[in-house]
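Model the whole thing, not chain by chain.
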Amino acid sequence: MAAEVRVRYAPSPTGQPHIGNIRTALFNWLFARHHGGKFIVRIEDTDQTRLVDGAVEAILDGLRWLNIDWDEGPEVDGPHAPYEQSNRLEIYQRLSEQLLDQGNAYHCHCSREALEQLRKANRESGSYSAEGCRCRALGRAGAVGDPVSDGERVIRFAMPQSGMTQVSDLIRGDVEWRNDLQEDFVILKSDGFPTYHLAVVADDHLMEISHVMRAEEWLPSTPRHLQLYQAFGFQPPEFAHLPMITGPDRAKLSKRHGATAIGEYRDEGYLPEALLNFMVLLGWSLDGSTEVVSLQDIIDNFTLDRITKSAAIFDQDKLLWMNGVYIRDLPAKDLAERMAAYIPRELGCDEHKYLSNIAPLVQERLKRLDESDDMTAYLFGDLAPDYDGAILVQKGMDAESASDALRATIASLEADTAPNDFGHEKLEAMLGELGASLSLSRRQFFGLLRTASTGRNVSPPLFETMEVIGRDRVMSRLHQAAQKLGAAV
RNA sequence: GCCCCGGUCGUCUAGCCAGGUCAGGAUGCCACCCUUUCAAGGUGGAGAUCAGGGGAUCGAAGCCCCUCCGGGGUACCA
């Protein structure tokens, strides 16, 4: 690779940025960073009918969230600005004129319906045939002379009617197409906007893109692009068509497969670094055995020869596992801060501090950050007063023995602990001994205390949890539990 | 219909290009260990006739041919 590596991510702002789309961005970015090249973002807003408000911002937010930075593009600009195709219309129009002049393009007045008929009539190939549409034969002069449909005309590229077009794809190898099977595709629409094909070729050339890395769904349109490069006399870039990401049914990932927008993953509490690690493994591998890879190692080893050819199903289960791995790997303070973002209350200064005491307790139980609120609810404030007292009674006990055990615990704690003397080690020693004298199993006794202290029968280790909750609140919760049991007895 | 790409455990994949030990790892699932619950961790297990069929070879997941299946593309969408 002699020249500088320049790759681009070229999304259309037609909705929420898709996970498959973002994966393409990620691969381009990794490739650029691996080669010390440039990563460019270009907004392909050539379809005026599908624009969605706020989509550009959502796309950029998605990139930022994953920590993918761009060297040229919206907000940062660069030597090839503007980076929104809607602001580059003159370029495409000028280029279309050039093709018209060269005889590589022509005006076409045919209606969609007429073309549809043509395609149907051509049952064998099912494609539009230049023979049916006479516009190409009319040439430039003929088209201009038709005042009636002047406003409806488009410009089509005149595909060569013989020969082959071949690409040496960096991932798929040599692929070739018969030119006579290709349609004369539209390059400039009747509204004056270019189609993807014209715009992408023009801008990739103008922006000096060295490698076009895009999803496999683009492979079939590559011969069109190659022919455009040739007609313009431009040197084509290298092409690398990435395997697609599919849903469990192996069809192209779409909304019906559940969460597909990058923002949903953020909202559900996935760590960006975990999602990134997971996504890169969809189609790329370091060595076949390493799964958790640091970003630096990914960048250092990100080469095209390690990219798979086959499409990959997006496996939520494995993502969840990996998210857990990354959560467990976080420094407690960092985890606490991230958890705070998922607790839908304003946390005071004390509560933030408290949260960093809690974080280590829930760390290895947390799979997603959005569980933070529920998983810490009983640690904050007062216990929900209305949990069912019946869950206090553990397997193999009755309410009376539970009640007795609770009263004994209360008495013992009141006598032998103080607010500043409520450490988990001491609690464990004390209550372990007490439990032994009670003719209850550890499981039963500790289970009872767990439920009484937390209102749940699942929690982090009991004594650490009690310590974090603190003596005052533990005592009041024990009393509360005793009352519930008293009512039941 | 036509064109193109793909096909290794349920899933992500290593191995393929430069044929040669029980096809390796991870996830998910199951069991056991640890254990005050849930997790985490540890150990083990089930799970792939390498899509199928031919062929050349002493030898094929790898090379060649055919078939099947899956997907993508066939728009004045990207």
